[in-house]
Design goal:
Elements (H helix, E strand, L loop, with lengths): L4 H8 L6 E4 L12 H12 L4 E4 L12 E4 L2 E4 L1 H11 L10 H29 L3 H6 L9 H19 L6 H19 L12 H16 L5 H9 L1 H14 L3 H4 L8 H42 L1
Helix pairs in contact: 2-3, 2-8, 4-6, 4-7, 4-8, 7-9, 8-10, 9-10
């Protein structure tokens, strides 16, 4: 979908350095149904960067979600967008890292975005048949069409993950990879508030994005969620810390179920009353007519 000139103009009128974050509309249970969207918005909050949400254009010209517009410049892909902002706005979440920690942070970032992300995607859309997606997103079209939609997404995920390489593994092997990654995150985090100490880094924003999605939206029996809650409890504490510090408005930002359509019910009631009145009116008219006929008949007999 092309971007309307009026929307471009609106973005250009924002204060300098204000980021327009383009992503999917709020989901149920969680502010963003995509780990990458949640990562991007969490980064903006951690870095204290002023931003505005745009849900009208979730897909970038590259077909990527999320993406940003800042000072008239569009940048696709969450990681490229973050790196651009770090340079453009001269605000760095990683400036407190030693060169050694920066290298580890980069390794975690790649692991999360380029491998663990596939474990989550395959779990949601292949093993889980898209049930998580149907639960948290307000999908278009009639409800009975959503499972068919998920089958198409599953097919696309199978094909893309096969091209990536991870999709060539068995379910048991994919789960082994995902659990090994979780263990690495948990062991490195230890008892620290964030991965590299007292201050958050870009890798923390990414880690939060994935963990929060799993803990919040996956069923309690799900293998990823069970592993986090049963074996890596420090990751649960990490998610709660980030939510408390940067997402105090979490509940307000989560999509609510649409309110019951009371107005339409009331309208139906009113329409029914009107119909009853009309029917009653017609009945009265008929009765009045009958009474009048009877009176006219009496008068005719009296004349006779």
């Amino acid at each position: 979908m092309g971007i309307k000139a009026a929307d471009r103009e609106k973005w250009n009128k924002l204060d300098k350095d204000t980021v327009v974050l383009h992503h999917y509309a709020r989901a149920k249970l969680i502010p963003d149904g995509s780990p990458f969207g949640l990562k991007m918005e969490t980064y903006l909050r951690m870095a204290d960067i002023k931003y505005e949400n745009d849900f009208k254009y979730p897909s970038s010209p590259k077909g990527k979600t999320p993406w940003i517009t800042v000072n008239g410049k569009d940048v696709s892909d969450s990681q490229l967008a973050i790196e651009y902002l770090e340079k453009e706005l001269e605000k760095s979440l990683n400036d407190h890292l030693t060169p050694e920690h920066a290298a580890v942070a980069r390794a975690f970032q790649v692991t999360l975005d380029d491998r663990f992300a596939w474990c989550v995607a395959i779990d949601r859309l292949v093993y889980g048949q898209g049930k998580v997606i149907m639960k948290i997103l307000d999908l278009p079209g009639p409800k009975f069409t959503h499972p068919f939609m998920m089958k198409l997404f599953k097919r696309g995920t199978v094909k893309a993950s096969h091209g990536h390489g991870i999709g060539r593994h068995s379910e048991e092997e994919v789960k082994k990879i995902g659990l090994a990654d979780l263990k690495a995150f948990s062991e490195y985090l230890g008892n620290k508030p964030f991965l590299f100490g007292e201050k958050p880094s870009i890798a923390d924003a990414s880690l939060f994005g994935f963990l929060a999605e799993i803990i919040t939206t996956h069923d309690e029996s799900n293998w990823l969620r069970k592993a986090i809650e049963d074996d890596f409890k420090n990751l649960v504490d990490f998610v709660e810390r980030v939510k408390e510090k940067y997402w105090s408005d979490w509940e307000e930002e989560v999509a609510k179920d649409p309110p019951p359509k009371e107005e339409k019910k009331e309208e139906k009631k009113e329409d029914k009353k009107e119909e009853e009145k009309k029917e009653g009116g017609e009945d009265n008219k008929d009765k009045d007519g009958e009474n009048k006929d009877k009176e006219d008949g009496k008068e005719e007999e009296e004349k006779k």
